[in-house]
Amino acid sequence: MSMDINWLAVVAAAVSAFLLGGIWYGPLFKNAWCREAGVDPSKPAGHPGRVFGSAFVLALVAAIAFAMLLGPAPSLHLGLHHGALVGFAFVATSFGINYAFAGRSLKLWLIDGGYHLLQFVLYGVILGLWH
């Protein structure tokens, strides 16, 4: 692993996850996700600044770690391949294990796992193109 990473690309990757989440958990899957997660959409989960701030910091940490994994100048192919691998085989399957024990639905897993798959594919595209 290398700390020789493109910090602007890392921040852009984190922003892309934040924007994807706004679309994914907003107009695309908000109602289905709320229903499956047992969340009342009219009741906020906490102060929006804390929620969105935490989400961005965590997306940034993930983008930094992923950039370190890819190295200083990954190809687009490597970024896409590793993004799909990490998003599905590590993140989505880990959610799947937790959801199986928690009795969560397949639909909820598909929504959350799908988001993280796309999140890391986006990271791979951005880091693979921006050197």
Which properties best describe this structure?
transmembrane helix; DUF1761 domain-containing protein; transmembrane; mainly alpha; 79% helix; 131 residues; membrane; single chain
What features would you describe in this structure?
- By secondary structure, the chain is mostly helical.
- It has one domain.
- Helices cover 79% and strands 0% of the residues.
- It has 5 helices and no strands.
- It has helices at residues 7-28, 30-37, 48-70, 76-102, 106-129.
- Helix 1 runs antiparallel to helix 5.
- The model has no long low-confidence stretch (mean pLDDT 95).
Total number of domains: 1
- Sequence stretches where pLDDT stays below 50 over 5 or more residues: none
Mean model confidence by pLDDT? 95
**Main sheet record:** none
What fraction strand? Answer: under 5%
Distance between the termini: 17 Å
Principal-axes shape call: globular
What level of helicity do the residues show?
A: over 70%
**Tally of helical runs:** 5
Q: How many beta-strand runs?
A: 0
Structural class given helices, strands, pairing? mainly alpha
Q: What are the secondary-structure elements, in order, as H or E? A: HHHHH
Radius of gyration: 15 Å
Q: What's the structural blueprint in terms of helices and strands?
A:
Blueprint: H1 7-28, H2 30-37, H3 48-70, H4 76-102, H5 106-129
Helix pairs in contact: 1-3, 1-5, 2-5, 3-5, 4-5
Transmembrane segments: 7-26, 51-71, 83-101, 113-130
Organism: Agrilutibacter niabensis
Protein name: DUF1761 domain-containing protein
Outline of the structure:
The protein has 131 residues and is mainly alpha-helical.
